[in-house]
């Protein structure tokens, strides 16, 4: 009887363990504030690495002068992690290798990312941050996303914005350093920020303006500060931007309407004999057939002749004249007005004395006498 008692005593303890496991998993999902992963030290790997690893990358010709200038700083930064670097100016390549003193296995991967960023025109002051534990990088290739070259340049410029304002806003919201160079976009920062940067860059190349994504990032940033909304869904707060089909496709003038599909073949067209049988011409004699053809030809000739005569007679038909009734009325109206004016003038003339004023015969003789005196 002792055996079943032991089994009964074990069952409640197992249930408690399962509950504890469930609570532990939920606690693990939330990271406490201010927690940081401890750095990887030599104590964690005292014996070092077994094999030597190396990575190489090519750099463009225009980066040669800058790499020469900052190469001592690169060697010093990689020397702290016990990784050797070589610069080959003839081939145009940078190579990084692990050494016997290297204890961190992930250091060579960080060194590989460092030389990739330097080759993609990222300045050394920013590229060195990749050697830190909390930093990561992402090089997004955008050259093959848009086929048309002019369209690609416009969308890339849209990502940068006027005087780099759009890129600066993206850097502030994602806490990442973003560098647009040629057909690639280099990003450096935390993992969560890199994810957002990649989304914004790819959406911009798909003709979605970056301002929409920046607006959503700003709202997310404000919502993250509220501790009550951390466990809730943010979909109700985020804006839903819909595509507006502004330019519609031009439709053709003549639209071809497709007929409904039928498995049966189209009906066979009627032959000449079938048509003659339907009209009854097939049973006529040859002389009657000739007579009918002659009658048809004569009817066509008569129609053509009548058309020609009509065209010839068009030249002899006089054009229709416009009626001049309105002008005559206007003229009569003007005449009436003139007659009244004349009557008024006549009345005025009757009231005054008619005729020319009488000429004094003395006046000319007096003048003649004065002239003679002057001459004398």
From TrEMBL:
<keyword id="KW-0539">Nucleus</keyword>
<dbReference type="InterPro" id="IPR048550">
    <property type="entry name" value="KRR1-like_KH1_euk"/>
</dbReference>
<dbReference type="InterPro" id="IPR048548">
    <property type="entry name" value="KRR1-like_KH2"/>
</dbReference>
<feature type="compositionally biased region" description="Basic residues">
    <location>
        <begin position="245"/>
        <end position="257"/>
    </location>
</feature>
<keyword id="KW-0694">RNA-binding</keyword>
<keyword id="KW-0687">Ribonucleoprotein</keyword>
<feature type="region of interest" description="Disordered">
    <location>
        <begin position="1"/>
        <end position="28"/>
    </location>
</feature>
<dbReference type="GO" id="GO:0032040">
    <property type="term" value="C:small-subunit processome"/>
</dbReference>
<dbReference type="GO" id="GO:0003723">
    <property type="term" value="F:RNA binding"/>
</dbReference>
<comment type="subunit">
    <text>Part of the small subunit (SSU) processome, composed of more than 70 proteins and the RNA chaperone small nucleolar RNA (snoRNA) U3.</text>
</comment>
<feature type="domain" description="K Homology">
    <location>
        <begin position="136"/>
        <end position="206"/>
    </location>
</feature>
<keyword id="KW-0698">rRNA processing</keyword>
<protein>
    <recommendedName>
        <fullName>KRR1 small subunit processome component</fullName>
    </recommendedName>
</protein>
<comment type="function">
    <text>Required for 40S ribosome biogenesis. Involved in nucleolar processing of pre-18S ribosomal RNA and ribosome assembly.</text>
</comment>
<feature type="compositionally biased region" description="Basic and acidic residues">
    <location>
        <begin position="301"/>
        <end position="324"/>
    </location>
</feature>
<feature type="region of interest" description="Disordered">
    <location>
        <begin position="245"/>
        <end position="277"/>
    </location>
</feature>
<dbReference type="InterPro" id="IPR024166">
    <property type="entry name" value="rRNA_assembly_KRR1"/>
</dbReference>
<dbReference type="GO" id="GO:0006364">
    <property type="term" value="P:rRNA processing"/>
</dbReference>
<dbReference type="InterPro" id="IPR004087">
    <property type="entry name" value="KH_dom"/>
</dbReference>
<dbReference type="InterPro" id="IPR041174">
    <property type="entry name" value="KRR1-like_KH1"/>
</dbReference>
<keyword id="KW-0690">Ribosome biogenesis</keyword>
<feature type="region of interest" description="Disordered">
    <location>
        <begin position="301"/>
        <end position="376"/>
    </location>
</feature>
<feature type="compositionally biased region" description="Basic and acidic residues">
    <location>
        <begin position="335"/>
        <end position="344"/>
    </location>
</feature>
<dbReference type="InterPro" id="IPR048549">
    <property type="entry name" value="KRR1-like_KH2_euk"/>
</dbReference>
<dbReference type="Pfam" id="PF17903">
    <property type="entry name" value="KH_KRR1_1st"/>
</dbReference>
<comment type="subunit">
    <text>Component of the ribosomal small subunit (SSU) processome.</text>
</comment>
<comment type="function">
    <text>Part of the small subunit (SSU) processome, first precursor of the small eukaryotic ribosomal subunit. During the assembly of the SSU processome in the nucleolus, many ribosome biogenesis factors, an RNA chaperone and ribosomal proteins associate with the nascent pre-rRNA and work in concert to generate RNA folding, modifications, rearrangements and cleavage as well as targeted degradation of pre-ribosomal RNA by the RNA exosome.</text>
</comment>
<comment type="similarity">
    <text>Belongs to the KRR1 family.</text>
</comment>
<dbReference type="Pfam" id="PF21800">
    <property type="entry name" value="KH_KRR1_2nd"/>
</dbReference>
């Amino acid at each position: 009887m002792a055996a079943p008692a032991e089994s009964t005593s074990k069952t409640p303890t197992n249930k408690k363990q399962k509950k504890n496991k469930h609570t532990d998993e939920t606690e693990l999902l939330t990271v406490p504030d201010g927690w940081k992963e401890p750095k990887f030290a030599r104590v964690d790997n005292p014996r070092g690495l077994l094999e030597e690893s190396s990575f190489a990358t090519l750099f463009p010709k225009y980066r040669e002068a800058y790499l020469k200038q900052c190469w001592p700083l690169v060697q010093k930064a990689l020397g702290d992690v016990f990784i050797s670097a070589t610069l080959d100016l003839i081939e145009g390549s940078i190579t990084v290798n692990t050494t016997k003193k290297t204890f961190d296995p992930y250091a060579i991967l960080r060194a590989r990312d460092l030389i990739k960023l330097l080759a993609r025109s990222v300045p050394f002051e920013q590229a060195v941050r990749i050697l830190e534990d909390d930093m990561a990088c992402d090089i997004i290739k955008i050259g093959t996303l848009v086929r048309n070259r002019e369209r690609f340049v416009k969308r890339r410029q849209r990502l940068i914005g006027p005087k780099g304002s759009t890129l600066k806003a993206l850097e502030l919201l994602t806490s990442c350093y973003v560098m647009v160079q040629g057909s690639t976009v280099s990003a450096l920062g935390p993992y969560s920020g890199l994810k957002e940067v990649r989304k914004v860059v790819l959406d911009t190349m798909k003709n979605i303006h970056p301002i929409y994504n920046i607006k959503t990032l700003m709202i997310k940033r404000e919502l993250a500060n509220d501790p009550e909304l951390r466990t809730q869904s943010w979909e109700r707060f985020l804006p839903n931007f819909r595509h507006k089909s502004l330019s519609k496709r031009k439709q053709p003038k003549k639209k071809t309407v497709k007929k409904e599909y039928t498995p049966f073949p189209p009906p066979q067209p009627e032959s000449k004999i079938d048509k003659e049988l339907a009209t009854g011409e097939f049973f006529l004699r040859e002389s009657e057939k000739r007579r009918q053809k002659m009658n048809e030809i004569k009817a066509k000739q008569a129609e053509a002749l009548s058309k020609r005569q009509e065209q010839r007679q068009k030249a002899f038909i006089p054009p229709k004249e416009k009626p001049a009734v309105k002008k005559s009325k206007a003229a009569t109206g003007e005449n009436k007005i003139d007659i009244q004016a004349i009557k008024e003038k006549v009345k005025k003339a009757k009231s005054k004395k008619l005729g020319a004023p009488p000429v004094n015969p003395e006046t000319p003789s007096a003048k003649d006498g004065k002239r003679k005196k002057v001459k004398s």
